[in-house]
């Protein structure tokens, strides 16, 4: 009613305290106020990205333009919120994506699923999930180009790649802004038999409280990393495993290699930390993004309702 749109043209997203009834009077009033303030310029987009923040410390938004070989092109944009209770499948994460490409709905859905699996479902902050999450893709088809209706089209492959690129950037932003985070951590497991195996091992490292607290404490305790790989449930030959912290190799073929404590400390002082584990089994790899675990994370969640 407030926007003049049909009900089936509206999508509702929600997060909040589980089991607590929504204050519908306040929400109804807010809907009226928000509808009256709608805008179509860049500033309005920035305001929307800020408006959906909860425990986030900064908005998360990106856009990109894709140009095709035939000279036509389209624009993709997205905004997201999420800072805690983030783990596959997304938990309290909300994400809205817009595009002006004319895409057949079945292809848009397929591209979104593939892109989300490579991005939002590769982020974990605390290993917790919730009852509410959404990734919404809206395409208005206003770009001056032919309809994307076949998966074999160059335009579809460009659309899928652009959507994945956009969502990866949003996913990284979410990890960087994890509740209480002081470090962004990128964990890559390579040399796996399959991507699923690599993801399983990488996610095990990313959800390890001991790994995350070691990073927070600037402690290059590589044993915690390999321990998490070991209990991940994959089949592992420890004599084939190698490990790097940034550009510093710590383990080679299952043996300690070059624990340069000074260099390790320098790496751990950086805002972005990379961990690479090579299983030595195959050619597949997967990358997961997370953050460290600090005292502030405990404080935020210990007093969430108080």
Taken together, the total number of domains comes to: 2
Give the spatial strand order of the biggest sheet.
8-7-6-9-5-10
- What is the number of helical segments per DSSP (H or I, 4+ residues)? 9
Backbone shape = globular
**What's the N-to-C terminus distance?**
35 Å
CATH architecture of the largest domain: 4-Layer Sandwich
Structural class: alpha+beta
Give the averaged pLDDT, no decimals: 95
Which CATH class of the largest domain is shown?
A: Alpha Beta
CATH superfamily of the largest domain, called what? L-amino peptidase D-ALA esterase/amidase
- Please give the largest β-sheet: 6 strands, mixed
Q: How do the helices and strands follow one another from N- to C-terminus?
A: HHEEEHEHEHHHEEEHEEH
The third-level CATH topology of the largest domain is L-amino peptidase D-ALA esterase/amidase
Helix content: 25-40%
Regions with little confidence, pLDDT below 50 for 5+ residues: none
Percent in strands: 15-25%
Number of strands: 10
Tell me the Rg in angstroms. 21 Å
């Amino acid at each position: 009613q407030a926007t003049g749109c049909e009900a089936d043209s509206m999508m509702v997203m929600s997060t909040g305290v589980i089991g607590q009834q929504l204050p519908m009077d306040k929400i109804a009033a807010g809907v009226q106020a928000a509808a009256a303030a709608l805008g179509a310029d860049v500033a309005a987009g920035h305001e929307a990205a800020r408006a959906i923040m909860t425990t986030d410390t900064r908005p998360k938004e990106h856009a990109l333009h894709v140009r095709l070989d035939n000279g036509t092109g389209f624009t993709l944009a997205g905004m997201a919120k999420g800072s805690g209770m983030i783990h596959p499948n997304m938990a309290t994460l909300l994400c809205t994506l817009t595009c002006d490409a004319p895409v057949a709905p079945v292809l848009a859905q397929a591209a979104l699923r593939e892109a989300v699996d490579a991005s939002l479902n590769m982020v974990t902050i605390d290993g917790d999930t919730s009852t509410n999450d959404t990734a919404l893709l809206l395409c208005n088809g206003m770009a001056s180009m032919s309809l994307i209706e076949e998966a074999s089209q160059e335009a579809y492959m460009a659309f899928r790649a652009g959507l994945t690129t956009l969502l990866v950037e949003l996913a990284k932003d979410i990890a960087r802004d994890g509740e209480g985070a002081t470090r962004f951590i990128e964990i890559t497991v390579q040399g796996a038999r399959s991507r699923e195996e690599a993801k399983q091992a990488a996610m095990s490292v990313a959800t390890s409280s001991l790994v995350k607290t070691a990073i927070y404490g600037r402690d290059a305790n590589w044993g915690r990393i390999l321990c998490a790989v070991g209990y991940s449930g994959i089949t592992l030959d420890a004599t084939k495993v190698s490990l790097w912290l940034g550009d510093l190799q710590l383990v080679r073929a299952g043996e300690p290699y070059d624990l340069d404590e000074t260099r390790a400390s320098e790496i751990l002082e950086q805002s972005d930390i990379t961990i690479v584990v090579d299983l030595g089994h195959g050619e597949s790899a997967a990358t997961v993004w997370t953050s460290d675990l600090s005292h502030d994370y405990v404080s935020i969640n210990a007093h969430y309702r108080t």
